[in-house]
Structures are given as structure tokens and as C-alpha cells.
UniProtKB/TrEMBL annotation:
Pfam families: SAA. One of its GO terms (biological process) is acute-phase response. The keyword Manganese does not apply. SMART domains: SAA. Belongs to the SAA family. The keyword Signal applies. Residues 1-18 form the signal peptide. The lineage of its organism: Eukaryota, Metazoa, Chordata, Craniata, Vertebrata. This is Serum amyloid A protein. PANTHER family: SERUM AMYLOID A, SERUM AMYLOID A PROTEIN. GO terms for cellular component: high-density lipoprotein particle.
Length: 127
């Protein structure tokens, strides 16, 4: 009986430390949740800053922060950014050019580009 219990415990330890689909899936989900939070934080900061011309910077920063978490974060950033732009292009009336520029900033940040490329002059260093 003791040998059986030791075998079961050893199996659990080995499986838990192995790179299996369950741990990868769990990591993906955690990264996605963190990426969604990063995107929300960038949006809140953009609203708080209320700085003319800072929109693209916050798009790039939110995607950059989310993608740094891993594949799940990058996935969440892409889904949220695409959904927001699809909704915004139909509602805001800003047009296709603004949507294209936003998506360019989103992709730049998601692909590891420095968000400061889009940082406008005068934006407080807090952001």
C-alpha cells in the first residue's frame, strides 16, 4: 500500500512539473487575462491623460504590455484591439484612415516595437 501511494505521489509530481497541454493551456489563459488587463489599463490611462494625439501611443503601449506576457497576452490584445476598431469604425465616424493608423500602432506594440514611437510631445512622464 505504501509503495502504491509513493508511486501515485511520484507520478503526480512528475506530471505537474512536465510541460503538458494542461500547464500550457493554463499559462495561455493566465497570459490572456493579464493581456486583457494590460489593454484595459492602457485605455484607462488614455482616458485619464486626455492628451491630444496620444491615442496611438496608448494603443501601442497596451498591445506591447499584453504581448510581453506571452502568446495568450498577444492573442487577447489582438482580439480586443480588432473588436474595438471594428466597433469604433462603425460608430465613431472617424473613418478608415484613423482605424488603419490605430491598427498599425496596435500591431507595432504587439510585435515588440517601442510604444514611445507614438508618444506625443508633452504627454506626462507618468504614462
Amino acid at each position: 500500500m505504501r509503495l502504491c501511494i509513493c508511486f501515485v505521489l511520484l507520478s503526480v509530481i512528475v506530471c505537474a512539473s512536465a510541460d503538458n497541454p494542461f500547464t500550457r493551456g493554463g499559462r495561455f489563459v493566465l497570459d490572456a487575462a493579464g493581456g486583457a488587463w494590460d489593454t484595459l489599463r492602457a485605455y484607462r490611462d488614455m482616458r485619464e491623460a486626455n492628451h491630444v494625439g496620444a491615442d496611438k501611443y496608448f494603443h501601442a503601449r497596451g498591445n506591447y504590455d499584453a504581448a510581453r506576457r506571452g502568446p495568450g497576452g498577444a492573442w487577447a490584445a489582438r482580439v480586443i484591439s480588432d473588436a474595438r476598431e471594428n466597433w469604433q469604425s462603425g460608430v465613431s465616424g472617424r473613418g478608415a484612415e484613423d482605424t488603419r493608423a490605430d491598427q498599425e500602432a496596435n500591431a507595432w506594440g504587439r510585435n515588440g516595437g517601442d510604444p514611445n514611437r507614438y508618444r506625443p510631445p508633452g504627454l506626462p512622464s507618468k504614462y
